[in-house]
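Page 37, top half.
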Amino acid sequence: MDVFCLNTELVQLIRDEIRARGPQPFAWFMQQALYHPQHGYYARGHATIGRHGDYFTNVSVGPLFGQLLTAQFAEIWQRLGKACPERSRRVDQFIIVDQGTHDGAFARDVLNCARQRFPEFLPALRYRIIEPFPAWQGRQSQTLGAFRDTVQWTETVTPFVGVHFSNELLDALPVNLRGKRVDLAGEEFVFVEYADEPETKLNQAALDWIDNVAANLQRGGVIAIDYGFTRSLFRESLQVRAQHRHLTSPFEQIGHADITMHVNWTDIAERAEAKGLHIAGFTDQHHFLTGIISQFPEIADTAKAKRELQTLLHPEMLGRAFQVLALSKDVDADQLCGFKFARDPRIALEL
């Protein structure tokens, strides 16, 4: 396997752990491959997006995605103000918590749009990036040099009033695989059958994530964009990608390849409700962005924006591949513009 696994220090670390402790849960393996603090795929700062990177995402299309989300963030800010008449219908500090920021392009697009199109929103806006890895903090700092007074970095989610945003974060959180663990056959990594503990959750990391966000959100919302299914359609399906190629095994190019799993949206929504969050909306990206444009058509009124919009909305491109979940706490976030054309979220989520 070493022919494929160029990150030999990480490979040896994983081998040593398995030899010392026996077969390990896949979630542990995935945590090392992606997030090991020195050698993981994300930690090393080599993960790249776009046409010349490992995968293509919404932010790769251009600034329109961030501009449309800015309009949705501004609406949530306005709703928070309306819930506080004693504060003259304004919230003085609205924090966008961005987790899974990559190189900071999305944050730059949001802050540029707020400055140009939402001047009343900008003075209240603070941008908080959750980034544990120094390599990415440095890259984000360069991208966001023009907004140094507005942006701050933390390693974990801390208390906030505003909105937590993530784009393709949940699919990359470590997952267990039902009845399987990672073992060694000689020097090669293999899957072996292993009886699960009754309380084992396949997506425990995602459930822990929503617990953490719910505990720290004082007032405001959560917007999570990712690809997945509701419970009745959900299937365990790993995807391993490097340089836009789908690899056949997570044991290829360890530390140099992205590993993801579709999101079980029903599980996330149920856990959010159990932790005191309200389900404010759920739909696919096509309907979500169309709803925002219906209220803010001027954002997509240039030829360049219309080209970007085609990629973001087209059912065979990104429009149906991604879904959007909105959660809220202590604010009326029902019927946000992004969910103008959405079904009842509880029905859509099979709750």
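Page 37, bottom half:
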Amino acid sequence: MIPVVNRIRQSHERSRANRAVAMLFAVAWGGCGTPYRQTTESYDPSLGDFGAVDVYQPEGPELRPGVVLIHGGGWTSGSKGDLAGDAAQLAAAGYFVANVNYRLSPAAQFPLPIQDVCCALAFVRTHASELGVDPSRVALLGYSAGGYLAEMVGLGATDQRLDCPSGTTGLPAAVLAGDAPADLLHLPSLGDGMVEAFVGMPQSTDPALYTADSPISHVGPQVPPFLLIHGTGDLFVSWTQSATLQRELVADGNSASLLLLSGAGHVLNAGPDFGGLNYVEDAIDTPEGWSAILQFLQQTLGAPPP
């Protein structure tokens, strides 16, 4: 059996290889790769670094479709740096990108991180002309806990009339979520009580609160198009969560697609004998996942200008 440390090292090597393949998809979509410049802005100065956003602006005078990236980490950890490679790939493909931080639990519990994403979206739209992005063509793309936040904002699950420095905003133009929890009531504890830290109390104390805080409880008609990507090897968030959400979205007359990737999972999963850990690719960190993401963005936002 390969030691866990070697498998972790292999995970980084495999991730770099996957990003190289994904960049080929981006370059194929955007020609030789669109030049861009990167800056760090603040969508809410009162939040300090939690209110920071890395902005990727492709060169050119035309307003571009945009993507707001939302990192994972079980609501308790992670930062925008986790998705820096994804942001660079999307910018090279010609998309404006805003890669955001948000407040983390247990200091910031539901619904504060959701509201932060709303405020980041409002920032992008309010400053659209200077950022070079079309405010009507901005999608949310999140992984794991970030996918949950994207789903909740896309479903209008938090008050859109927030006290954001950039004012209020409507729903995004599209939602993409990878390996995202959609039903907190039926979600195993992630790590050391991550779900409980986010909700603010044990499930046994108030199961109805876990239901109310779940994307599956906010599905209704006339929401943006959804693309859900999930690995069948995900032992932390079962692929059935995305499948159930997709089914409910379609039942209410919405456009929702589900891409299941055989063997893909949540970074580190139990090995076949449950006696060790195997690296399993993130669902959005695969060539298949990136191809689907780029196709979905073109279908819902339109192709970036050359």
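Margin note: Residues 1-31, 268-280 have pLDDT under 50 and may be disordered.
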